[in-house]
Amino acid sequence: MTMYDDRGQAEENHMARAEEMAFRVTARRNRLLGQWAAIQMGLTPEETDAYAKAVVQADFEEAGDEDVVRKLFGDLTAAGVNTDDAAVRRALAEKAIEARRQLMQSE
Prior knowledge:
Blueprint: H1 2-41, H2 45-58, H3 66-78, H4 85-106
Pfam families: ATPaseInh_sub_z
Organism: Sphingomonas insulae
InterPro entries: ATPase_inh_sub_z, ATPase_inh_sub_z_sf
């Protein structure tokens, strides 16, 4: 019975690590997205840092990426940046790859 308990515990540990990594990738992606959008809007370095944190926080509004896409698109449009939904989603995909790469390199 111990072998099955150990295997179950190992599987739980693996799933917990995978969930933590997914959370970290998403948070890093959102920070990178915030920095990207801040550059588009011409924000100062201090404003960029604050905006990137706000984008990370925006992701907690609802499940999925729609809350982040909505925030970025709305803020970019309000700032007079000529963009569209597809450009924001493209940046989201690119920053997800970059975030995963950065986290894998840091481990």
